[in-house]
Amino acid sequence: MVLKYSSKTPYTLLMVEGDTDEIFYKRIKEIFFKNAKCKIINLEGNWSINSKVLDKAVVHLNDHPNIEFIICINIDRDSRSGKAPITMELIKNELKCFSNIKINNIRLFEAVQDIESWFFHDIHGIYKFLRFPRNKRNTKKYRPVEKLNHKDLSKLFKQAGKEYRKGYASENLINNLNVEIIRNNSIVLNEFCEFIEETYF
Fold first, then answer.
1. Does residue 1 fall inside a structural domain?
2. Is the pLDDT of residue 84 over 80?
C-alpha cells in the first residue's frame, strides 16, 4: 500500500483502555498500517473516561492548531449494560469548538466484554502458544467469542499449567496470535482498520 500523505493528511489519536489494549493495537498498527500517522494513547482504565479522553484530546488540539486530527476511541463494552462507559455526545460537544477536528472524525469502536474476547478468534494460536496436547484441544468450547473474556483465558492458561496476566505481560501471547484471523472475524476491529486504511492509503 502507498501512503497518500499531504500537508492536509490528518493525524490519528488512537485512545485505548489499558495496557493489554495498547500492546494489541501496536501489533495491529505494525501489521496493517505501520506507516500511518497514528499515535496510540493509553487511557489506563475506563474510570472517568470522558474526562481523560477530553484532557488528552484538548492538549493535542491546542498544541497543534494547524494539524487536522482524527480521534478513535477503542474501548470495551461493560458486560452488564452492553455499552461502553463513555458519553460520545458529551465528547463531541466539548470538541466541536476546535477547527482542527471534524465531529464525524471522532469515532468509537467497542470491543465485546474485553479485548481478550477477540483473542479467542485465534483459538488455534492460543493452544499452540500454550503447547497444549492436540488430543486435549476443544476449539468448539470457545465459541462464540462474544461470551468469553479474560477470565476464560486465565482458566485455559491454568489448564496448561501457566498463568495469564493482563497488561504488558500479555505481549508474548499477543505477538504469537494471528491478528489477520482476529481482524477477519471481528466486525468492529475490521471496521476500525478499514477506517484507518481509507484515511491513509
1. no
2. no
